[in-house]
């Protein structure tokens, strides 16, 4: 059997969109662990948040944080480290994005020129972030606010998105839609970060099948970077129309149920 490596979004994919429960995906995670198949979180979450979930799911290995703006690789996991990696507390951190201060500055400038109102995490008290994100535990909120590269934000009007994007891009920002928030970052995305890890995994294993699982537009570049992509359903059973039909297979199940469906299909054909 080929060595399977799975790259997965967290919110709305491995984790339930509303409750953040992983219960419906636990059997699939266990299946991957038992077969020695790396499961790599690729999320808009911060490194602090993902470390918590890695521990909770008994995962060991690299992960991608803040929508591809940063890579974290345990020391000794690969024989080499990508250019720019910095060793810190037993792991290698590889920055791929613009610093958060510069991102927030450029986002404010673009919003002002567009005449639209944005509220980012840097503008919100923790109570507002909790209300909008669904995060209730202070430790989780602290982790979500510990941002290094990317700014989640909300728009006053949905129609303002198309006015903001070209002016943000003019300033070197990428704007994407996630499950709950829009996201602003420098020129990095999940696909670039996943591509770096795929190259390292191909050096580590002689024959690799790469799999990507996501649920929204900001997962598209990841789904295009892997051998097999899966788009899980939204809670209402629909699929994100921003993902072209040929970019990923559609699961019937939503969120973690769809993740389990995708993993069981991959293992069955293994």
Description:
The chain has nine helices and 13 strands. The N and C termini lie close together (6 Å). The radius of gyration is 18 Å and the shape is globular. Helices cover 36% and strands 22% of the residues. The strands form three sheets. The protein has a five-stranded parallel sheet, sandwiched between helices. The protein folds into two domains: 139 residues, Rossmann fold (3-Layer(aba) Sandwich); 86 residues, Putative mannosyl-3-phosphoglycerate phosphatase, domain 2 (Threonyl-tRNA Synthetase, Chain A, domain 2, 2-Layer Sandwich). It has 270 residues and is of the alpha/beta class. Helix 1 links the parallel strand 1 and strand 2.
Task: List descriptors.
270 residues, alpha/beta, Rossmann fold, Threonyl-tRNA Synthetase, Chain A, domain 2, 5-stranded parallel β-sheet, 9 helices, 13 strands, 36% helix, globular
Helix and strand layout, with pairings?
Layout: E1 3-8, H1 26-34, E2 39-41, H2 47-56, E3 63-65, E4 70-74, E5 86-88, E6 91-95, H3 100-114, E7 118-120, H4 126-133, H5 138-145, E8 151-155, H6 161-170, E9 174-177, E10 182-185, H7 190-204, E11 208-214, H8 220-225, E12 228-233, E13 249-254, H9 255-269
Parallel strand pairs: 1-2, 1-11, 11-12, 12-13
Antiparallel strand pairs: 3-4, 4-6, 5-6, 7-8, 8-10, 9-10
Helix pairs in contact: 1-9, 3-6
